[in-house]
Design a protein that fits this description.
This protein is α/β, with parallel strands linked by helices. Helix content is 41%, strand content 22%. Strands 4-3-2-5-6 form a five-stranded mixed β-sheet. A two-stranded parallel ribbon has the order 1-7. β2 and β3 form a beta hairpin. The longest helix is centred in the N-terminal third of the chain and has 14 residues. The radius of gyration is 15 Å and the shape is globular.
């Protein structure tokens, strides 16, 4: 049985503009640390060793647009870790929270969201395809309860 998180999340309205502005000003480290811990629990056990080697040592920035939230991560020494808020990124992914949730639950795939312009990927195309194909092969990371 795969280690996916049972989760039931209601659709959340976007936060007010003032709160988004405040969130955007906060340091990147705390949410990056939380996301790294979640990925180490849910994704890392399902990540094939060969894919982990290919994905390692590249910084990925994830932006949740409707919340003004950014995280930076890298797979280093076999674990997801937060990455500093400076320096280049191999890949930048941006979407609103509802689109990320649809991806995580397997309701939609990245290609569909990309072509609908609900998901933006910028940076190293080859790395982006490797990440996308790896996640597609693993399947949904969240399952409804």
């Amino acid at each position: 049985m795969s280690p996916s998180l049972p989760i039931r999340l209601p659709a959340l309205p976007p936060p007010p503009a003032a709160l988004r502005t405040l969130i955007a000003r906060l340091p990147i480290q705390p949410p990056s640390l939380l996301l790294a811990a979640a990925l180490n629990r849910v994704l890392r056990p399902r990540l094939p060793a060969d894919a982990a080697l290919e994905l390692a040592d590249h910084t990925v920035e994830i932006e949740v647009r409707d919340f003004g939230l950014r995280c930076r991560l890298a797979l280093r020494d076999g674990r997801f870790r937060s990455a500093p808020d400076h320096g280049p990124v191999a890949l930048r992914i941006a979407a609103d929270s509802a689109s990320y949730l649809r991806l995580l639950r397997g309701d939609d795939d990245a290609d569909r969201l990309f072509f609908e312009r609900a998901l933006v990927m910028e940076g190293d195309t080859e790395y982006g395809l490797l990440l996308k194909n790896t996640l597609d092969a693993i399947g949904p990371l969240l399952r409804p309860i």
